[in-house]
Amino acid sequence: MQERDIDIVIIGSGSAGLNVMAQARAAGRSFVLINGGESGTTCARIGCMPSKVMIQIAEEYYRRTHFGQFGIDGHDGLSIDLSEAMKHVQELRDGFVQGVVSRSTDKLPADVFIQDYAQLLEPTLVEAGGQRFRAKAVVIATGSTPILPAPWRQFGDRVITTDEVFELEDLPASMAIIGMGTIGLELGQSLARMGVKITGFDQVERVAGIADPEVNRTAIELMRKDFSIHLGATATLEAAGEQIRVSAGEQTVVVDKVLASIGRVPAVAGLGLEVLGLPLDARGVPPFDDQTMQVGDLPVFLAGDVTGERQVLHESTDEGKIAGYNAAHVEQSPERFQRKTPFYVNFCAPNIIAVGARFDQIDPDSSAVAEVSFSTVGRARAMGAARGVLRVYADKASGRLLGSEMIAPRGEHLGHLLAWAIEQRMTVGEVLRMPFYHPVIEGALKTAFSQLYAEVEAKNPGPVTEVAPLRQPS
């Protein structure tokens, strides 16, 4: 088989791979983009975008339960057509996917976009589509795949994964969701609010990966208002006629379908990463530097969910840019890049947020912790959304903000403000001198910062904490 010389071989056309391609183009490098399976990014096809459509439908329908307290009558007569709801999810999903591919892979010639699964024969020799490509650099951006235990496969389409849930044309009367991480919790609440009888299970005693015990306690309490959640025991499945019996500890439920949401693993099967000559971890991933994305000392780079680490869109995008830049300049020492403040959003209502250092990463002796209940926040009360808790962490000596976890109404916006402040290494005092409007949800942040300010040693210069003295011109 004839080899074709190319500057960069990119394996995977998701968010990371497309950003690698952009870097290759910017540097004037030749490339091929190889993609096995469906086109379109994980976000557009099976992840963030279709899930947000479903969450929005559920939220709009759920709002009817609040109308009575506002004096709005007739809400008891509202109903939801589940097949129409799922049709809407799929139509928007298809539009998101088409928007991505029409701006990217649809514009590539057939000799540049290879639709096939790739295999590494050597670190820089790749085979796909009946061709072999000899590259100066290779970037692996194959994404991730949902975990489905082998014994569960016997149940056929009665057990589905998060890759398949948005393909349902109608929703079952009952469903068990195994795995109360971000995806399981979001879908569990949404489906329950749309009228599906949901039961959630997880073998650990926390949800959405929350580390802060107070936020976790509050989240579990609030999520249980929408559907049953059983924690701390491993779930097992067995046939019950046309249904499935799910058991965990002393809890048993019989349901029409099971949604397996127990995590995703790097999609590396069949890639042949053994030829890299480096040890592979339990997930099949070789060692790499997350500031260069380089694998060992090889001209090979990872990007996106395939790393198994920061599996969120903005991180995948950044990793594609980092890997792409270094692959496009492989003849020089790889450039090291500063990674951004960790930031995670769960779009349940209220939102569950983690930004910066997690509770289990801070030193309890040298850190200050502030806590604000949203039952005391005026804007949240006016919205009928006075539920949740905000916890913010700061270094006692320097006053620098460290991190936060929360379950909060409009928490996605609070999280962004905190992420930007932490990224800028701001102190509690510096943030208190930012403008805060009233009444807004962000008032909860001001309350938390005021609590922290009383505990930290670093104080603002001048006689008033929140207002800086006017500097006279020299």
What does this structure look like?
By secondary structure, this protein is α/β, with parallel strands linked by helices. The protein is 28% helix and 24% strand. It contains twelve helices and 22 strands. Strands 1, 2, 3, 4, 5, 6 and 17 form a seven-stranded mixed sheet that branches. Strands 8-15-9-10-11 form a five-stranded parallel sheet, covered by helices on one side. Strand 10 (197-202), helix 7 and strand 11 (228-231) form a beta-alpha-beta unit. Helix 3 (48-62) runs antiparallel to helix 5 (82-103).
How is this structure best summarized?
With 474 residues, this protein is α/β, with parallel strands linked by helices. The protein contains twelve helices and 22 strands. Helices cover 28% and strands 24% of the residues.
Average of the residue pLDDT scores: 95
End-to-end gap: 76 Å
Shape: globular
User: Which stretches are low in confidence, meaning pLDDT under 50 for 5 or more residues running?
Assistant: none
Radius of gyration: 25 Å
The number of distinct helices, counting runs of at least 4 residues, comes to 12
Largest sheet: 7 strands, mixed
Percentage of residues assigned to helices: 25-40%
Structural class based on helices, strands and sheet pairing:
alpha/beta
Q: Oligomeric form of this entry? A: single chain
Overall number of strands? 22
What distinguishing features does this structure have?
single chain; 474 residues; seven-stranded mixed sheet; alpha/beta
Any chance you could write out the topology, listing elements then pairs?
Blueprint: E1 3-11, H1 15-26, E2 31-34, H2 42-45, H3 48-62, H4 64-67, H5 82-103, E3 113-114, E4 119-122, E5 125-128, E6 131-140, E7 144-146, E8 159-161, E9 174-178, H6 182-193, E10 197-202, H7 213-223, E11 228-231, E12 236-240, E13 243-248, E14 251-255, E15 257-260, E16 264-266, E17 300-302, H8 313-328, E18 343-346, E19 351-356, E20 367-373, H9 378-383, E21 389-395, E22 401-408, H10 411-423, H11 428-432, H12 443-455
Parallel strand pairs: 1-2, 1-6, 2-3, 6-17, 8-15, 9-10, 9-15, 10-11
Antiparallel strand pairs: 4-5, 5-6, 7-16, 12-13, 13-14, 18-19, 19-22, 20-21, 21-22
